[in-house]
Each structure stands twice: as C-alpha cells, then as structure tokens.
Amino acid sequence: MKELKRGRVVLTLAGALMASTMAVPAFAQVTQERLENVHAEPQNWLLPLGDYAGWSYSSLSQINLSNVGSLRMIANIPIQTALRDTNSSNLEGRPIVVDGMMYYNDAWGVMYGVDISDPHNPVIRWVTDPAMDREAGEVLINRSGAVFGDRYLTNLTDGRVVAVDVNTGELVIDEQIARTEENWEYDAGEGFTAPPLPVEGMLLVGQSKGDWGTRGFLAAVSTDTGEELWRTYTVPGPGEFGHETWADPEGTAWHTGGGSLWQVGAYDPATRLTIWGTANPVPMFDPEFRPGDNLFTNSAIAFNVDDGSINWYFQYTPNESWDYDEIGIHMLVDVVDDGEERLAVVHYARNGYYYRLDRTNGEFISANQWVDSITWTDGIDEKTGLPIEYDPALLLQTYRPETRGLRDSLPTFDYCPTMLGGVRWQPTAYDPSTRIHYVAGMDGCSTTTIQPEDPLEGGGNPNGVGAVWLGGGDIVTTGVTQDEANGLMVGINVDTGEIVVEQSMRYQSQSGLVATGGGLLFHGGYDGRITAHDSATLEEVWAFNVGIRMKAAPITFSVDGNQYVAVIAGAAGGGGGYAELSNMQAGAMVFIFGLE
C-alpha cells in the first residue's frame, strides 16, 4: 500500500489497477539519445510535439493523397475516468507511443498504459489514479505526459509531478512541486497544465495558473526521484533583472503578475537551451494596475537546462492588455534569410503576427500578419520587432487608443484578433520537405469591458486566493457570426515568413495539426470531425465524424509497417456558440484509424 498526500486530504491506493495480466510488448528504455533522434523511429511518437523542435511531423507516408479516402476507424478506447465528477472532460493532450504501447492521461491525471501491438484490438494493461481531490474545484486540463527511461511522467493541475513504471503502472513518484495556499501567501493556487518536457534525466514543468494571480515559473524535476533541481520565475522579484518593469506605486503587482507557461517548450541539444512562451500579465485587461513593460510576460524565453538561468528573451507585446498570451508553439527550424543561414525560432503569435527569431540570441528577424484583421497596432517595427507605437519612455503604453481599454477614457473597447487570438496552445506543424509551417486557428474580434480592482495592501489577488483575476468582463466575440467561417488554416514558408497557402474553415480550431510524409495534415475538429487536408492546397480530402468535440491534435504511428492515425476526443458538450452544434454531447475516447 502506498499512502499519497495531497494538501489536507490523505488518500490510499492499492497500487495500479491492472486491466490484464498478459505479457506486454517488449519495452526498450527511452533514452536521451532516442529523444534527440526521434525521426529515426517514425513508428513511435515519443514526445508531446513529436520531437524536441516542436515540428509535429512524421515521415510516415503509407497513408497519402492516393488512398486517404479509404481510411476508416478500426478501434476506439473509452476513457471512462475522464467524465467522473465532471461534465467537461477537457482532453487536450496527445498520447505517447513507444514500441507497441500507448500512454495517456485524462484531465484528472489518471494514467493509462494501452497495448496497441494489434491496433485493431487495443488492450488496457493498467490504469493508475494519482488521486486528485475531486472536490477541490481544480481547473481540469492536462495536455499530455512524457516517457523517460522506463517511466511515464505527467504533471497535474493540483501542482504535483507523478510518475509510474511503464510496465506495471506502479506509482513511483508523487511530489508536490507547485505551491499551495498553505505554504505561500501570494502564489496560492499554482499548478500545471502544460505537457512536461523530458531532458537529460530532468522533467521540465511550467507553472500554468497565471490568471489566478500567480507568477509563472519553469522548474526541473529529477525523473529518478521527483526532487526539484531548479526553478526560475518568469516575473522577476526584487533585485532581479526586469523587476523594475513592474512599476506600480505600491510595488506589489509582481507578486501576482502572471507570465504562466501552459504549453510545452522546445529544446535545442546543441545549445542546451529550452525555449518556452509565456502568458499575459495579470490582471490581463487592466494595464493601469501594473504599469511598465511587465517582463517576462508575453515573451519567448530561452532557459539553460543545466541551471534554469535565462540566456535570452524576446517580448512580443510589452504592457499588453488583450489576453494575447504567447505560450503557443515556439518551433525550431534552420532558415535561409537573405541568403544567410540562421538557426531560428518561428512562432504563430496569438497577437496575429508570424515571428522569426534567432534562437541563439533572441534577435528579431521578421514579423508578418497571418490573421485577416489586426486593429490593436498599426504594425511591427522592422528593426526592433516591437509594435510601432511602443514608446520605451512610457509606463503605460497607448498603442492604438481606440482599441486600448483604459479605466477613464475607454472602459469598453473592441479589438482584433479576438481575445482567443489567432492561435493558443494548439500544436502547429512543419513539413521539412516543403519548408512550410502550418497552423489551424481562428479569426474574429472581441469586445471587453474593464473591471478595475484596487490593489490589496501588501499585494495579492483582490478576488481572493485561487480565483481568476481578469480585470475585465462582459467579453463578447464579434466580427464573426454563425453564418460565417471563423476558423482558418495557414501555411507560411519559414525562409520568407510569408503566407503561401490559406483556407478558411467553418469552425474555430481548438486542437491542432500533425503533418505527414504522405502530403497530408490531420486536424481534430470543433464539430467532432477528424479531417485530412492536402498540405499543398489545404483542401479537405477526408473526414470522419466521431461525434465528440476535439481539443487535442492527432498523432500518427505505425505497427508492423502499417500506418495509423490516433486522436483523443473529449471536450464539453453544447454548441460553443454555433447553433447547429448545440446537441453535441461530452465524451472521452481514443480513436484509431487505419487503411486495412
């Protein structure tokens, strides 16, 4: 028996729940060498984004334009624990596939080990419940786990890092890493929703609950013991570089400043830098509460994996106030810019621009608009990469005043893109054969009303510990109607930063893409359809309606030379703003598709 402790709640588990005693497929340990060379074994899917560079790409080509029309569902696996005690499964993660086994978890952190050596007849070998408190009111999101050595590891919304033995499901690590109300006055309510990243025997975990009035951080945890090895906050404290950019007179805004990390970063083994995007400052819609640039929110940050030190940063939108988190995928590619080869980071930004940065030093290369409408700024400075209205002498930026909510002059304001941005956490995808970087996102605008709060004496969240703190409300998505397409799919050439192909979609995307060597993109739909698209034209060439909304991107893998596509379906029911989808039901299922 293993006693697990979570806050004041003591729970006891009798080990893993074993679904079968049959022999499982032979498992070779997932080493650092394997993770750095994932494209040598395309039959597997070893990392949440497919590889360290964030490509979401597989060279598998058996399923291609000539035969994708014959793709059919061959198996489904119910995730029965996902809807217990909730009506919204919120499954936004991808499964990990290693040598005939598939690993995934639900939003409660319940972990599954599934034998897919025969994809037509998957067998659940074990299920392990880490015993999250189901009455604690946690925001239930878990965007994936990871495998390192012989362990499947994940991080939970209650702030724990847990790991199980991949062969038995036995719980071997259970450590409280994020702070709770009991041990930290200001950052109570920390937790994790981003997928963890295994690197050199460490698991990198990003603190994700910035909107609850906490400071984001990246931490490294030992995959052997669960011991925390280092932690770096994305909102600097007193005496640290950037602290002066939180310039409120009370000097307390940094305590609850946001800058969370809720999508996984990339890793460059050559430089030992891991590059993550950070979220908005808090409160998100009230910049007057937190004058200054608010470093390191809305930024790309390169951390040294050995000690967590910040090597460089690039802030997209200083003193931002539209909820344009830039936690989205920061992909590593080598580009040719004006005839010069450069090691780059490319990023579809939530603020509507596509950025290229030098990944060795964060130097700005270029930015181009990729959504239809941007109103919050007149453009990006070609030299600095900052919005052209940005004035370093100002503590409160004006940008375009008619779209900038301020307490006295414009308490209700309209802006584009929508507060959901062009794209959020959804994985983008890159095809190295065409050098095109793809995204599935959304278009539209929003209207928001400022709801200012006075600072608490000594700092803290005026809405209370663990409460969401937006600084605004009455948020309405405008500029799109139920009779218009408000999703979009775009492909950009990484060498030019310019759009080469685009396609409107009926519904917004909340899942993401995988690109394959068969010239296809697979996408999970808001309307419950998984679709395949011609990567040259983005034309839809195949679809299958699973009946459950998808917020997770598909993956592809192979067994015995046969290629398959899999996706986890699971999101809230209802229409999500679309009348014709109002009868959709919540669900939780893994679907597997194949040709035979």
Compact overview of the structure:
It is built from 1 helix and 39 strands.
Notes on the structure:
By secondary structure, the chain is an all-beta fold. It contains 1 helix and 39 strands. The protein has one helix at about 30-35; strands at about 1-5, 10-15, 15-20, 55-60, 70-80, 95-100, 100-105, 110-115, 125-130, 145-150, 150-155, 160-165, 170-175, 195-200, 200-205, 215-220, 230-235, 265-270, 275, 300-305, 310-315, 330-335, 340-350, 355-360, 365-370, 410-415, 430, 435-440, 445-450, 470-480, 485-495, 500-505, 515, 520-525, 530-535, 540-545, 555-560, 560-570, 590-595. A 5-stranded antiparallel beta sheet has the order 3-9-8-7-6, with no helix packed on it. Strand 27 and strand 28 form a beta hairpin. It starts with a strand and ends with a strand. Mean pLDDT is about 90; it is low at about 1-20 and about 480-485.
Q: Based on CA inertia axes, which overall geometry fits?
A: globular
Task: Please outline the major beta sheet.
Answer: 5 strands, antiparallel
Q: In which range does the helix fraction lie?
A: under 10%
Helix tally equals 1
Strand order of the largest sheet: 3-9-8-7-6
* Helix/strand/pairing category: mainly beta
Low-pLDDT stretches: 1-21, 480-485
Number of beta strands: 39
From the alpha-carbon coordinates, what is the Rg to the nearest angstrom? 22 Å
Give the rounded overall mean pLDDT: 91
